Amino acid sequence: MQLISAADRAYIENKYHRSDEPFDPHRRFNYHGYEYDPSTGLEDEQMYNGLEKLYEETKGIDHALAKAKAFAFVLDNARIDQSPHDYFFGFYNWARPLDKTFISKWDKEIFSSMPEVERIMSLYRKSGTAELWLDTDHAVPYWVDILSLGFPGLLARSESYRKAAKELTPKQDAFYQAIRIEYEAILRLLDRLSDFVRAHPSEKSDLILESLQSIRNGPPQNSFEALLVIYTYHVCSESVDQFQVRSLGNGLDRSLYSFWKKDLETGLFTRDEIKSFLAYLILQYAAIGNYWGQPFYLCGTDYDEKTDISELTLDILEVYDSLELYNPKIQVKIDYNTNPKIVYRVLDMIRKGHNSFVFCCIPGITKSLMSCYGVTDEEARNCDISGCNEMHIRGKEACMISALPNAAKAINYVFNDGMDTVLGERLGLSTGDVSKFSTFDEFYEAFIKQFKFILDTILDTARKYEKYVAEINPSVMLSATIESSLKKGVDGYGFGVKYPTSSMLLCSFATAVDSILAVKELVFEKKLTTLSELKKALDANWEGYESLRQKALNAKKKYGNADPDADCYAAAIFRWFSTYVTGQENSRHSVYKVGVPSTLHFISQGKLTEATPDGRKMGEECSKNVAPVIGMERKGVTAMLRSALSTQPWLFSEAYVLDVMLHPSAVSGSDGLEAMKALVDTYMKNDGISIQFNVFSPEMLLDAQENPAKYKNLQVRVSGWNVLWNDLSREEQDAYIKRASSLI
CB within 8 A of 258, min separation 6: which ones? Predict the structure, then answer.
């Protein structure tokens, strides 16, 4: 069976693109496809002017209520469409319209009252020391209730809690009003879409109309309606309510399983028909094409840990493989009892170039979450995987990523007595003239002091702004899915959940480790240079010191090679960072967690990080995630795995991900597949958390660089998402070629 026709696929792939502007994957939901029927909604300028007028009219009222009115205005007035080439509707908008007209203004209003906070955030960003932000981009709603209650059921539940409250504060009243306004607007949108479909009949319209009317009046009743609810929630939340939906279902396969099973048993849909619906849904997110990718996860366990849903999981993988996409990205939650067919299927897809997967290991996840902030075994095992590979308690946690500190900058501050040479300002501590340090212990102690000062500054600053998250961007749609939030009458991302956590993501870990090891080896053990001479080399960006730089690059002790001394310091720095930050109180009545995904900061911070003692020049990228510095994994993947596991991944309760690059020759044939499976099994058995792969040869990448037309579909796993090789800069491509060359 053909899952989707060529004409339908062509339409969907252009659904969010305007023909008169280049595609930019960093902009989400910014494209309109062909111009929708003008009679269905406002022009861009009319929409903008209407929202600006509404902003003025709602000044002084609760932000949740003001946002809800704006949300309803957009849903009532945006152009809509239902193409005969698609099962999912078109919604015309322009780059999150509430951001420019409401949310960014509230953000500016609140931060302008904290000039010192703004100053530190700006200095740390411009110097590459840390990125501090108010993050609401890792939200996962409670899909269990969304799919069991539907939009009208969520509205009715919220209203029942409002009516049951004996006395409401003005803020609680505004909270319930906001939910009612937004969910009534969603129901009106479904009515509008039904009217449009009725007026524009097509081959698909009978099913679409019946399904729209069904989910308008109650919860979804079958597989297609469940997918339509997921899509509708996502469109309204991500493009209008401005809360990214960082998973499609609490496990897409588990969320769909009861519908899928019932449809097959009753004969409502065949297995192939459901695969077709899945293909149409998945293509929506490929068409949106945002750079970070749209995540969803598979597998995991039910609360009873017994239900086997493998056949549906394999169907989803089959659909995804047949579409040959690099987005969405898929996390696969695995445990010792995960059906090996699924693991082998994913590994086979990866080695054939389909890299959009990360394995998330439940044993390590459970140990990590239970050790961090007192969650139960059940909560930990059934956590959601959000965004790239973050771990959040399902329906009970709203985690903000507050900052991404750059460990390599602490090295620079040691060499410059706390001065930041990028900005010419003192951003660190005065730990003394580095040339006067007579022992390695003095140097290492100064590094810890500098890093601690950075972290203390971040924590103090973040606590001052993160408590305003619900004022800057109230989570109205999300809060309606969280029953604890409804019981309290409090915003879910504010204080309405059981665990309103914050997190800090460590960047440039291996660069910092290798730099410390280089100082130890070159200065204090082999005495090949002095701290004074090394500082001169770093100040000169290694110009005129190439011989010394080569000694640094070729130092014996590098993280990633199972060297006992290197692994000792790597583990020590990880443990110190984790134990220092984890459990500290945030300003939302909860605690801080830590993670180690570097997103794109290994590149952006690298451009602002001075030369480092490991031989890296200023501007070159720093290390990413838990991976070694590029080209430094000299003893193979097994040694690299041992080094990573020595850092005790379970200490990182927000996210921990290891990047593994393999040569195609190492994974070919049945032996190669077994070798990949053995790597994953070993990682899981030793409390590893997340692991992802690239399978490249340097020859292939060099050819792809010189002949891009031959490699239009070549995928690269970047940090926690996939991109096409041809979309990487030459500099980024060179980095992957260097890493692939180190495998030989």
Answer: none
Distance CA 466, CA 451 (A): 22
Q: Report pLDDT for 94.
A: 65
Please tell me the predicted confidence (pLDDT) of residue 92: 84
Strands 357-361 and 329-334, bridge-based pairing: parallel
DSSP classification of residue 80? E
Token reading at 184:
């009534």
Q: Are strands 715-717 and 690-695 parallel, antiparallel or unpaired?
A: unpaired
Identify the DSSP state of 101: I
Q: For the chain, which residues score pLDDT lower than 70?
A: 17-34, 94-95, 301-307, 743-744
pLDDT digits (tens, 9 = 90+) for 64-114: 999 999 999 999 999 999 999 999 999 987 668 999 999 999 999 999 999
Q: Radius of gyration over alpha carbons of the chain, in Å?
A: 26
Tokens of 513: 């480790």
| pTM for this entry | 0.96
CA atoms within 13 A on the CB side of 65: 14
Dihedral class, residue 305 (left if φ above 0, else alpha if ψ from -120 to 50, else beta) = left
Q: What is the DSSP string of 331-391?
A: EEEE-TTS-HHHHHHHHHHHHTT---EEEEEHHHHHHHHHHHH---HHHHHTPEEETTTEE
Q: Which residues of 474-491 are buried (b: 16+ CB within 10 A; e: fewer)?
A: bbbbbbbbbbbbbebbbb
Q: What gap in Å lies between CA 369 and CA 274, rounded to an integer? A: 35
pLDDT digits (tens, 9 = 90+) for 269-322: 999 999 999 999 999 998 887 778 899 999 986 545 556 789 999 999 999 999
The DSSP code sequence of 417-478 is TTEETTTTEE-S-----GGG--SHHHHHHHHHHHHHHHHHHHHHHHHHHHTTHHHHS--HHH
Do the Cβ atoms of 332 and 313 come closer than 8 Å? Answer: no
- E strand segments, 532-668: 592-595, 657-662
As beta bridge partners, residue 90 has: 81
CA dist 189 to 36, 78, 83, 124, 536, Å? 16, 9, 16, 43, 65
- The torsion defined by the Cα of 724, 730, 731 and 735, in degrees rounded to 10, comes to 60
**Identity of the residue numbered 280:** Y
Cα three-residue angle 500-506-512, rounded to 5 degrees: 165
